[in-house]
Write a structure and sequence with these properties.
The protein has about 290 residues and is of the alpha/beta class. The protein has helices at about 20-30, 55-65, 85-90, 110-115, 140-150, 165-175, 185-200, 230-240, 260-270; strands at about 5-10, 35-40, 45-50, 70-80, 95-100, 100-105, 120-125, 155-160, 180-185, 205-210, 220-225, 245-255, 270-280, 285-290. The strands form 3 sheets. Strands 10-9-8-11-12-14-13 form a 7-stranded mixed sheet, sandwiched between helices. Strands 2-3-1-4 form a 4-stranded antiparallel sheet, with helices on one face. Strand 13 and strand 14 (about 285-290) form a beta hairpin. Helix 1 (about 20-30) packs antiparallel against helix 2 (about 55-65).
Length: about 290
């Protein structure tokens, strides 16, 4: 998948305003579809899928985020067609505990001795290759927490934009009878299949494509998971709703507080009702139930 990297240069009146402006820029760019950020000396960098980049929308969101005495400019470059998070993968990530039931660990950097010391019932090892979803991000953690509380045991689960496959694998480990996953990114499809295999999970079907593939998948789902940015959620929610069984749950994340109202409004039109909301830092997740 091709990405763009945007260098945000932040001009501030005083040094203590820089971290505040970084947070505002991250939030604004997140609303415009950006997936990941890293700080720089004079601002930050943001990464977005090439197909989702909208320069005018980004400029509009950044303008809304500016505070008095501060300004933001940006430059755009293509990311080399390679594993753009390779450095992060080499470093790895520390184990992530989700309540007292599940732990997500870095398969490539965890020894057998380390595993033996983990007492959590459900252990999921992830090898992330150019794919999003290790449990380190707030949105992933919130969906995992919601999934545990909801309990997918015996249910059919759909994972939209599966990334590393972490949500699919978690659903299977929690007793889902069948999991269907898809992602537009070929890397993610391969990574999901790989991670399912190393976790001994064999009830996950993985497809390459976007929400349009749902028209070619038979049957309804009891639980639909979507950890995607606001714009894609608004665009694809109707497709999710069409395959969600009556009484089924749609769990969504990948957005901020300011994004909730348009998402709830869209959900209401489709007959979806909010039943629970999660917060982790600036990020939010919502559990919806299908009533029609």
């Amino acid at each position: 998948m091709k990405y763009k990297v945007v260098q945000f240069n932040i001009s501030v009146a005083s040094a203590d305003q820089l971290p505040i402006m970084r947070d505002l820029v991250d939030a604004a760019a997140g609303e415009a579809g950006f997936e990941a950020f890293e700080d720089t000396d004079d601002g930050c960098k943001g990464y977005i899928q090439d197909r989702l980049f909208d320069k005018e929308l980004l400029a509009e969101k950044l303008k809304e985020a500016e505070i008095e005495g501060c300004s933001v400019s940006f430059t755009v470059d293509d990311v080399a067609d390679e594993n753009w998070n390779a450095t992060w993968e080499q470093i790895g990530f520390a184990p992530i505990e989700i309540g007292d039931q599940m732990i997500i660990y870095d398969k490539a950097h965890t020894t057998d001795e380390d595993l033996q010391q983990m007492t959590t019932p459900i252990k999921i090892g992830i090898e992330a290759h150019n794919a999003f979803g290790t449990g380190t991000h707030e949105t992933t953690r919130m969906i995992l927490k919601a999934l545990i509380e909801l309990s997918p045991e015996g249910k059919r689960v759909l994972d939209c934009g599966c990334g590393t496959g972490i949500l699919s694998i978690a659903a299977s480990k929690l007793g889902a009878r069948e999991v269907v996953a898809y992602d537009i990114d070929e890397w993610s499809v391969k990574n999901t299949k790989h991670n399912a295999e190393i976790n001994g999970v064999d009830n996950i079907e993985v497809y390459e494509g976007d929400a349009h593939i749902l028209s070619h998948i038979n049957g309804m789902f009891d639980v639909v998971l979507a950890n995607i940015n606001r714009n894609i959620l608004l665009q694809d929610m109707e497709s999710f709703d069409k395959v969600l069984s009556i009484g089924g749950n749609l769990i969504i994340s990948g957005f901020f507080e300011a994004d909730i109202q348009p998402l709830i409004t869209k959900a209401s039109v489709l007959g979806l009702t909010e039943v629970k909301r999660y917060s982790d830092g600036e990020w939010r997740a919502i559990v919806l139930v299908h009533n029609k």
